Amino acid sequence: MAACTLGKLTGGTRRILLLDKKLPWKEPIFCAEAVSTDRLSNLWPIDRSWVRGNISGIYFTSPKGYRAEFYSKNCGSLLDRSKFHHALADACLKAQVECRFDALVKGLRREEGFWSIDVACDGAVQTIRSKIVIDATGPGSRLTRGIDCLDGIESGDTDLEPAIFAVAEGIKHSREHIELFFGSEFPDGYGWIFPRDGVEVNIGFVLGKNVKTGVPLRQKLQSFIDSHYPDAKIKSIYGGMIACGQSKKPIAKCGLFKAGDAASCVNPISRSGIVESLLCGKIVAECAVEWLNSEKSEERESLEKMAYVRWMDALGKSHLQLQHAKPGFNSIKDSQFDRAAKSLSKLPREKQTLFRIFFGVLWACPSLIWKMRSFLH
Fold first, then answer.
1. Which end of the chain has fewer CB within 10 Å, C or N?
2. What percent of the chain has pLDDT over 90?
3. pLDDT digit string (tens) for 363-376?
4. Distance CA 86, CA 228 (A)
């Protein structure tokens, strides 16, 4: 998104190089692949060729299996990440961006007002010079560590949390619903089932960063599936640490801009990050173009600060509020989830709004109202 935006805004007057160590559509990290249809369409035209299907609701399932339903026709879209990545790359080429998907960035350093980037490609390492760099290397982003002028910049490790999921078959599910599981089985996080194509599902969970399970995550996932879905057939398993918090650190310094997970722009509660990354990529690219068009160091420093301000105005402030509310969500007891979900499940579908579901949980746990005051403001 950042590269495509740069290409469109510069109209061929700048050389833009997009580097990745492998084809992004060959082995994509599936994640949940669900996005808000409205939010995505505001950033990128939706093409049905890379949409697996539509989401019309969310099931909120309590520890005892009580299920509340939020229903809204076509509230979300299920992406085929492989095809979506290919479409993004095609758009980059049309925007005159040079794309290399066989290049591993080994390191970078600031030299005489330029960035020197060491790139391994075709068995050799070469050095490229660039006025700006956009770092979209994901959570942890080690690439920018240990560089003096980047001291204090966001490193994409805010609230790194463990997540694991399987692509599986043989699990009964609704093709148009996401199912979310809450309670002590997933401390400080939640479990999920996301439909994929009517046969496969994405089933997994995320836990709080300080949670100690006592067993490997893969074993915990296998136990969850065996217990609830004994007929399931696991096809593949993916796992890793994901950035799940919003920091107050800058996302741009010295002509280097952060985007996506490298900028810790993931929703702290839902842990969603696809649309968030697209939006962040667009914002930093717009700031980068203004930076390139400026010759004064003071103006450039101001634009680097502006990248963070624009992100915060767009979504970051909302993320900070959710982050403040996170301990409140995490303190809800199983009995409170059960009580709220049981009460809500008795309502007709049309009355199970997100507003009613949210306050149903609060009503079951009144102490949360004070704990979550920053979210309610």
1. C
2. 66
3. 555 554 444 443 44
4. 36
What Cα–Cα distance (Å) separates residue 137 from each residue in 140, 150, 268, 274?
8, 16, 19, 14
**pLDDT band at residue 165 under the 50/70/90 scheme:** very high
Contacts of 362 (CB under 8 A, 6+ apart): 368, 369, 372
**Counting runs of H as helices and runs of E as strands, what totals does the chain give?**
11, 16
What is the dihedral angle through the alpha carbons of 315, 316, 321, 327, rounded to the nearest 10 degrees?
120
Q: Tell whether the model's pLDDT for residue 251 goes beyond 80.
A: yes
The two most distant CA atoms of the chain are separated, in Å, by 67
| pLDDT for 70 | 78
Query: CA nearest 139: which of 265, 284, 285?
Result: 265
Q: At 254, list the tokens.
A: 């010295």
Q: Which tokens in the block code for residue 330?
A: 């995490």
pLDDT category at 188 given cuts 50, 70, 90 is very high
CA distances from 143 to 147, 256, 315 (A): 9, 11, 25
Torsion of the alpha carbons at 70, 74, 80 and 85, rounded to the nearest 10: -110
The pLDDT tens digits of the residues spanning 301-313 come to 999 999 999 999 9
Q: How far is CA 148 from the centre of its chain?
A: 28
CB atoms within 10 A of CB 143: 21
Instruction: State the DSSP code for 167.
Output: E
At 119, the amino acid letter reads V
CA–CA distance, 341 with 344 (Å, rounded to integer): 5
The single residue listed with the structure tokens 């982003």 is 141
pTM over 0.70: yes
Cα–Cα dist 4/169, whole Å: 36
